[in-house]
User: Fold hydroxyacylglutathione hydrolase from Kluyveromyces marxianus.
Amino acid sequence: MLRGLVATRISTRRMHVKAIKMRWLTGGVNYSYLLSTNDKKKSWLIDPAETLEVMEDLTTDEIKTIEAIVNTHHHYDHAGGNVTTLAALKEKGCNVSHVIAGSQRSPIANEIPDNLHETSLGKLKILCIRTPCHTQDSICYYVQDTETGEQAIFTGDTLFTGGCGRFFEGTAEEMDKALNVNLLEYTGGRTNWDKIKVYPGHEYTAGNVHFIRNNVYLNKSDNKSFNELESFANANEVTTGHFTLADELSYNPFMRLDDKIVRKRVGDSQLSWTRAQVMDKLRELKNRA
Assistant:
């Protein structure tokens, strides 16, 4: 089930995603992403929080293609570079003016899409899925290449490989809805989820794997898909774009709230808790890990 090519530049046949490392030397392990069309003539620059690191990783040709700065949420390590990045792009001859975000808490945001707002970038169709919890203005951007069927989702701090974000501005019930209703309902259904590659805002996979092995799937016999994730994470520093929504559903405990093993590990021995209670306890355990 688990498959793919891992590198800081990840390209498909038509839709191109360039992952840009930010704050890795200081422990943030953030990603910014350059999402480009098949002909590489139009791009979005997603979450360019650290202007110097982002600009160093963009070529002159790439800079010229950028049509918008896009934020997944307002936190400084995602949106804090909006002003300086816009200025740096303009200095390099890019006349970008669109700053797309979930609220005006993102600096200089001038486009605030509603939930399920559809837009396009060349042949790429993009759906803005609001996922309030980590922040109330969190948005995941679901991208489909209308020519090839290739798909991706940029999840910010809502969904990580093997985990999810802290509930800074929301509740366990909201995170359950964000992950297990909003993201799944609006991305084409079960037969489509294995086609959607996930691009989270941080490279937290190793830490999430450690948490799951020590708190949830303690035994190799508990979850075969998790064993595969663990092996991959142990061998690869960069995991973004390698896994799909279907993969996440197979091993991510925050998306497996009805799994008997997950429930028993958080203390629901009678399998009687609500999903929100299971989610809340999982997050509490992860916060302490």
